Amino acid sequence: MVFQQRLNKARACMREQQVDALLLSVGADLPYFCGYEAMALERLTMLVVPFDGAAKLIVPRLEADRVVERPGLFDLQVWDETDDPIAIVGSLVGAANKVAVGDHTWAGFLVDLLKVLPKAQFCRASEITSPLRSIKDAAEVEALGAAAAAADKVAVDLRAGNISLVGRSEAEVSVELANRLLAEGHQRVNFAIVAAGANAASPHHEPGQRIIGANEIVLCDFGGTMEDAHGVGYCSDITRCVHLGEPPAELVEAYEVLHEAQATQVGAAVVGQRCEEVDRVGRQMITDAGYGDYFIHRTGHGIGTEAHEHPYIVEGNSEVLQSGHAFSIEPGIYMPGRWGMRLEDIVVAAEEGPSNLSTTDHRLAILGT
Ligand code: ZN
Ligand code: ZN
Ligand code: ZN
Questions:
Q1: How far is the CA of 151 from the centre of ligand 1 (A)?
Q2: Strand, coil or helix: what is 224?
Q3: Cross-strand partners of 194
């Protein structure tokens, strides 16, 4: 029923934007609307949603068994190895003037679709799906909360010193974080960044063979996907930093600034606030403290069935926060060649005020070595 409501809303948006057909393939849109996730393979899977008429899920024969059929929501059309799935989609779409294609659809499929639908105008499906997906209903907020709580357990263990760091490589610790995310109920790990010392100055550092030593900061940013009752996965994402041994005064000072800026941004994420304003309040504090040049990325990203989605908490995004918007608040300070730090929570805008789903202690954890 939840899927039917979502598809109805999508059709209402299609009407407004005069879109005749919505085509969804790999990526997060498809599971959001029908509970099935396409395999990212060379065989086409595509949900064809005409503005009027029944939706059809086009699936290769060998993957048909994985589909949970939902009569009334979509009809299943299985194609065999010698069939041409692009031709099938083309015939279903027919004389459509405007077609919205899932943003993550492989370019190769889109090129072939352009050939069979030469008269159609194409647009991104996200123009229809993002505004719907970015506002989470109560069940989705609950699913995000469950994923955040599972990630919190790993972060609490990290801060407590239950994950050994000194003498191990970043890659080894990354594997342990990933395994712990799975043990806490995630079905999939999306990333587990472990960046020690100067490596922490690179926000998306790839954990490598570098051995973690005493007297350095270790930045850990990890998250995964956890399925809800309908089998649709929702993402977690958290960053905490630990310092091995007593941190130097410079790091303590910088962390204090980061901590206060992040808390201020979480508090500013109220319904009616512009996304860019949430970015601005924390960036101003970090700039006033002299670190403005070292906060080199936006404050945050929306989160849901995808780890990064709308709304983006960034300068220039005047979109106003609405109840149900879920996003990260993750300012950072990065000193090239020396150290880096980031503090990240997942927050949901609600009428009662911002709800912080990440409850792990926000202070810099100081561990003995
Ligand atoms: Zn990131
Ligand atoms: Zn993160
Ligand atoms: Zn994030």
A1: 16
A2: strand
A3: 220
Cα 331 to ligand 2 centroid, rounded to whole Å: 10
- Going from the Cα of 167 to the center of ligand 1, the distance in angstroms, rounded, reads 26
pLDDT in tens, 237-258: 999 999 999 999 999 999 999 9
Residues facing residue 332 across a β-bridge: 342
What is the C-alpha to C-alpha distance for residues 44 and 81, in angstroms, rounded to an integer?
A: 11
Tell me how far the alpha carbon of residue 34 lies from the centroid of ligand 3, in angstroms: 26
Please tell me the distance between residue 270's alpha carbon and the centre of ligand 1 in angstroms: 23
The reported pTM is 0.93
Residue whose entry in the numeric block shows the structure tokens 């730090």: 341
Q: pLDDT digit string (tens) for 121-156?
A: 999 999 999 999 999 999 999 999 999 999 999 999
Ligand nearest to the CA of 307: 3
- CA distance linking residue 125 with residue 109, whole number of Å: 15
CA angle (333 as vertex; 225, 235 as ends), nearest 5: 10
Between CA 284 and CA 259 the distance in angstroms is 13
CA of 12 to the centre of ligand 1 (A): 33
Query: Looking at the predicted structure, is the pLDDT value of residue 353 above 90?
Result: yes
Among residues 282, 360, 362, 265, which one has the least CA distance to residue 321?
265
In terms of phi and psi (left: phi > 0; alpha: psi -120 to 50; beta: otherwise), the region of 353 is left
Token reading at 365: 């954890």
Among 242, 202, 199, residue whose Cα is nearest residue 220: 242
Contact call for residues 221 and 133 (beta carbons, < 8 A): no
